[in-house]
Amino acid sequence: MRIILVGFGVVGQSLARLLSVRKRELLGYGINPRVVAVVDSGGAAVDPKGVDLDAALAAKKGGGTVADHPRAGQAKLDALRVIRSVEAEVVVETTPTNIRDGEPGLGHMEASFRAGKHVVTANKGPLALALPALNELAAHNKVEFFFSGTVGGGTPILHFAKRCLSSDRILKIEGILNGTTNFILGRMESQGEGFDAALAEASEKGYAEADPSLDIDGWDTACKVVIMANWIMGKETTLADVDVKGIRGISTEEVRGASRAGRSVKLLGSIDDTASVRPVAIERTDPLCVQGTLNAVKFSSEFAGDEVIIGKGAGGMETASAVLRDLLELKRSRAWK
């Protein structure tokens, strides 16, 4: 399996490390992933025989770009040229999320499909804006499209619903889909911190981005709601259909008041007849009332009732494990090694 890795940030680098560490085990699964190109904003490293991933990681750490790779680096080579010209079966797309227009990830995915290449991604932006169109384009070009890492990081939320609950009809999905906001609200409740102090602590621990707006204003959760609504429930939902209210402006008194009543304030994403994201005070005995940076999703189905899946929803290595899971799934559906 020849792979083009587009995006070499936290997730891309974590995937490179994971592929190196698990190489021998993967051979036991009948898969021999060979990364023939790595692309970042500064250029690319290309080697048809397989890019030395340790050297790519060292180049990224040293000069900030894989274009500094000692043997395979090319400073002026961009992702679209690599996707169109380098021979490979799969493009792994891990560039940053952009919910304004989905770029550059959306263009990378479209180009990959048109080039007859399968896509595995952890990039939520393009899917939140154009998942039905991307699925149609993949089907038209007879290629596969996997994206389990876009919801829940390493926790197989999409796989669980699509596979394990496929015999039932899911009536409602709700859950905590953003670990950053869950951490912030938890600190406000347990330590009595103000919102700004809790956000600063989340940033210090690496849970929040330099610009945390997507998290605290609810848009990261909204993206995941859109993906689940489309992929799991077959709804033609867009971001414009989601009623979004984040946690910015939540006061410590609101959080502590809920706590005194035996409840915890959580940012919940919900899908039934409508789609929404909003802070909700839920009972501490509710299975969704998880702590720290955990995610928890409850599926309410017609016959099986309520089922909850809980796990880590973010992190470079956790998300990289979801990408690897999708690569294994792709291998099962295809014949090459």
Protein model, in words:
The chain is an alpha/beta fold. Helix content is 41%, strand content 21%. It has 13 helices and 13 strands. The protein has helices at 10-21, 23-28, 53-63, 79-85, 105-114, 124-140, 157-164, 179-191, 195-204, 213-216, 219-231, 252-260, 316-333; strands at residues 2-6, 34-40, 43-46, 73-74, 90-93, 118-121, 145-146, 170-176, 242-244, 263-271, 275-283, 294-301, 305-312. The strands form two sheets. Strands 4-3-2-1-5-6-7 form a seven-stranded mixed beta sheet, with helices on both faces. Strand 6 (118-121), helix 6 (124-140) and strand 7 form a beta-alpha-beta unit. Helix 1 (10-21) crosses helix 13, helix 8 packs across helix 9 (195-204) and helix 8 crosses helix 12 (252-260). The longest helix is centred in the C-terminal third of the chain and has 18 residues, at 316-333. The model has no long low-confidence stretch (mean pLDDT 94).
Summarize the structure in short.
The protein has 337 residues and is α/β, with parallel strands linked by helices. Helix content is 41%, strand content 21%. The model has no long low-confidence stretch (mean pLDDT 94).
